[in-house]
Design brief:
Length: about 170
């Protein structure tokens, strides 16, 4: 659905899940830091149990590079798409990599890990992924126990696609 909504847009794009509302001026926040990042992730407000699971997103009023880019972690990107801004250049590159799509079609119809693979593609292509906690999103993550099969399937898909992407340069 995100790709359908973004069809024909050749500009920066902000993706927000329908149940996530920015708590603050997200447009001003993006303008403030978009020169530092090609992708900006926004976290979910609330307690750890109900929403934000990424340790680096729990501190207030900070921004920085997502840790996987600093640490080179092979599987966890720290990126998810309930609140995600992409620069026009990042959008163009993702569409080039994914046959005209921003999000890889291998994840269509199942929940999870499509955003982590998007981060993999951006990282592989040399784009900088950051985050901001100056603005948070309302809401919480749903019940993951209902989505475990989808997530497991997509995790395997992601690892397979990562292997193809990184082995292609060898």
């Amino acid at each position: 659905m995100r790709d359908l909504g973004a069809e024909g847009v050749d500009d920066d794009i902000l993706f927000l899940d329908g149940d996530k509302v920015p708590q603050g001026d997200i447009v001003s926040d993006i303008a403030r830091i978009k020169s530092k990042y090609d992708c900006i992730c926004y976290g979910v407000d609330g307690s750890f149990e109900n929403s934000e699971y990424r340790d680096f997103m729990r501190e207030d009023d900070v921004d920085g590079v997502v840790p996987f880019q600093r640490l080179g972690h092979p599987f966890a990107s720290g990126c998810y798409s309930c609140g995600l801004w992409l620069s026009r250049d990042a959008v163009r590159k993702l569409r080039e990599l994914n046959g005209g799509r921003i999000f890889h079609p291998a994840f269509d119809g199942r929940w999870g890990d499509e955003d982590n693979f998007l981060a993999d593609e951006l990282h592989y292509s040399g784009f900088k992924i950051g985050y901001s906690t100056h603005v948070r999103l309302s809401g919480k993550f749903g019940d993951w126990s209902q989505k475990c099969d989808d997530l497991a399937h997509n995790f395997v898909q992601r690892i397979h696609l990562r292997k193809q992407m990184f082995n292609a340069e060898a």
